[in-house]
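Hey, I was hoping to borrow your eyes for a little while. I'm sending you its amino acid sequence along with the C-alpha cells. Take your time with it, there's no hurry, and the full record follows here.
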Amino acid sequence: MLALAVLNCGKDAAWLSETCLYELSVYTFVVSPRQDDLVLITHAADNIANRLLPGKHKSDVLCLPGMRLLDDPDDAYRLIHLPTGGHITTTTRSSGTGGGRSYPEWSWKRADEPITAREAEVLDALPFMTPDAEALLAALTSRLWLRDPCGSWAIEGWYNPPPHRDRETTRSRGHSRRLSGRGDHWELAWTSYPYPEDLVAALSHPRAGLQKVRVVPEGKVTHLRYGTAQLSVVPAV
C-alpha cells in the first residue's frame, strides 16, 4: 500500500494516462510514482514492458510509439518515452529495482534508436491536451492504488474491491474502461472497480489529492475541475 501522502510523478505521466493506460489495464499493478519516474510494481513486469516497447520485428502501432528501453544494471525494465522524456520503470520489486529480465532485450528498440516515421504519424494523431489536463490526468494515474488508512475509501486498481467494503454489484464483473477527450475536456467511464465515489475521494482528498481540484456533481456524473481542465467521472451503464 502506498502511503497516504501527496504524490508527484511529474506531468510527463499524463501521456501514460491518455495513451496507454487502457493497454496496461489488462494487468494488475501497484502505481508507485517517484520524482520523474512512474514505477509500476507487478508480477507481470516483463509483459508490461513488452506491451509498451516497440520491437524490431513487430508493428510500430502494437506498442506505445516513441517508447524505448534503457540499459539498467539492476535488471529492472526502465523505459523512456523519447517525445516527452517521461520515464517508466516496471519491476517485480517494491523498491523499484530490478527483478530479472525474461524477455530477450535485443528484440526491443533502445534509447539510441530515433522515432520512426510511422511512430511520429501515430503520435501526431493523438488528441491535444492542455497543461491543466496533463496535471489532472497525471494525478489520476499516480493515485490508482491509494487507500485511506481510516477505511472510508480505497482504490485497489481495476480488479480488486475496496477492503472490507465489498458489495455485489455490476462492477464485480465489469471489464470496460474508456478515457476520451481533447484539450481541457476529458471523460472517464468504466464498469469495473474502483467505485466512482472512491476515485473522486482520492483525487480531492485534502492531503493525498490534487491541490485545488474542485468537485462538481451534476446528476449521476461528477466533474473534477483543475484550473481550466475538467475530468467527468461517468457511472457505469
Summary: The longest helix spans residues 131-142. DSSP finds five helices and ten strands in the chain. Residues 1-18 have pLDDT under 50 and may be disordered. The beta strands are 30-34, 37-41, 67-69, 77-81, 86-91, 177-182, 185-190, 214-218, 221-226, 229-234.
